[in-house]
Amino acid sequence: MVHVTPQAAAAADTVRLDVWLWAARFFKTRALAKQAIEGGKVQVAGQGAKPSRAVRAGESLVVRRGDDVFEVQVLGTSDRRGSASVAQALYSETEASREARLKAAAERRAAATGYRPPLTKPDKRARRLIQALGDLDAL
């Protein structure tokens, strides 16, 4: 007969935060997840956390990855990295977070469509044209 202590039973449904972020596919490697946590990019219940913090189902997380901010509710725990569909089953993103993230992405795409950087530096003639056009705006 195997005797299971309450601490061992509680530990079975918890996972380290950096492992969970890696398994849920927020970061490619566990080391990147650890760096993000230590850099303050991940909050658990509105507070900063350590990479070794235990994550349980029902907790809320805020994950900042680049320009994207994810507000998620933990639905399950896993210490193994699976397919994307398995990873998405570990959390649910709030509707407000999803809308804000998609809106910000659309704004970034719209801002980037109007500008194309030149392939080379402008030559002497092009510099003079740029300067002449710049003077027109001053009038």
From TrEMBL:
Keyword terms of this UniProt record: DNA-binding, RNA-binding
Transmembrane feature ranges: none
Any one GO biological process: cellular response to heat
Domain RNA-binding S4: 15-77
SUPFAM superfamilies on file: Alpha-L RNA-binding motif (SSF55174)
Signal peptide boundaries: none
One Gene Ontology term of the molecular function aspect: ribosomal large subunit binding
InterPro entries the record matches: HSP15, S4_RNA-bd, S4_RNA-bd_sf
Annotated family: Belongs to the HSP15 family.
Stated name of the protein: Heat shock protein 15
Native source organism of the sequence: Arenimonas malthae CC-JY-1
Lineage of the species this protein comes from: Bacteria, Pseudomonadati, Pseudomonadota, Gammaproteobacteria, Lysobacterales
